[in-house]
Design goal:
The complex is a heterodimer. By secondary structure, chain A is mainly β. Chain A has no helices and 11 strands. In chain A, strands 2, 4, 5, 6, 9, 10 and 11 form a 7-stranded mixed beta sheet that branches. In chain A, strands 1-3-8-7 form a 4-stranded antiparallel beta sheet, with no helix packed on it. Chain A is globular and about 40 Å long. Chain B starts with a strand and ends with a strand. The chains are: A mainly beta, B mainly beta. The A-B interface holds A 35, 44-47, 50, 59-62, 95, 100, 102-108, 110-113 and B 32-35, 37, 39, 44-47, 50-51, 54, 56-57, 88, 90-94, 96-103.
């Protein structure tokens, strides 16, 4: 079955960096668009970034553009999010999610999430 | 950017009742590009509906989606105890950003 397992979250000071990983299994990773979506404590869902199956198409939310970098390693079946210049408002649970492969971009499988806390 | 506004913010209903959730877009969204998710406390979201009206794999038929243009609806025909949760709509039509609505909480009356 499809599994997405995030890791790499933790506590960091403002201005610091973290690298999140998402290990994928149970499907052909190279066939699917993937995304990072976050949820601040007690708040709604916010899209962060997505990457095409080939890695050639990448988009970011304006709130993270220039600070976050999404990437994927097909050989390792893994998705990554490099987060630099972290701010308090980046505090959230970060989910990796798999596209459903239908017109549009929707997510039928999600990881359990990893918590990132940015605080001095 | 397409802004999605969900209403009501909270819906208080009893098991067995019908729930009607609204998602209004700030500009027209192709029906193919609208989805609904359910999220329970401490869990990741679960895809319910995509393409405005197609149920995702394993979703019971008491969940249905409809709408077009700027107005979309998620209907739960008869609420089961496990349906009390927060529901989000989401759109992506090919141009970023991908956006979510603010959510509707369906709570037990």
């Amino acid at each position: 079955q499809v599994q997405l397992v995030e890791s790499g979250g933790g506590s960091v000071k403002p201005g610091g960096s973290l690298r999140l990983s998402c290990a994928a299994s149970g499907f052909t990773f190279s066939d699917y668009y993937m995304a990072w979506i976050r949820q601040a404590p007690g708040k709604g869902l916010e899209w962060v970034s997505f990457i095409s199956n080939s890695g050639t198409t990448i988009y970011y939310a304006d709130s993270v553009k220039g600070r976050f970098t999404i990437s994927r390693d097909i050989a390792k079946n893994s998705l990554y999010l490099q987060m630099n210049s972290l701010r308090a408002e980046d505090t959230a649970v970060y989910y990796c999610a798999r596209d459903i492969v239908a017109p549009g971009l929707f997510f039928d499988n999600w990881g359990q999430g990893t918590l990132v806390t940015v605080s001095s | 950017e397409i802004v999605l506004t969900q209403s009501p913010g909270t819906l208080s209903l009893s098991p067995g009742e019908r729930a009607t959730l609204s998602c209004r877009a700030s500009q027209s969204v192709s029906s193919s590009y609208l989805a609904w998710y359910q999220q329970k406390p401490g869990q990741a979201p679960r895809l319910l509906i995509y393409g405005a009206s197609s149920r995702a794999t394993g979703i019971p038929d008491r969940f249905s989606g409809s709408g077009s243009g700027t107005d979309f609806t998620l209907t739960i025909s008869r609420l089961e105890p496990e349906d009390f949760a927060v529901y989000y709509c989401q759109q992506y039509g090919g141009s970023p950003p991908l956006t979510f609505g603010g959510g509707t909480k369906v709570e037990i009356k």
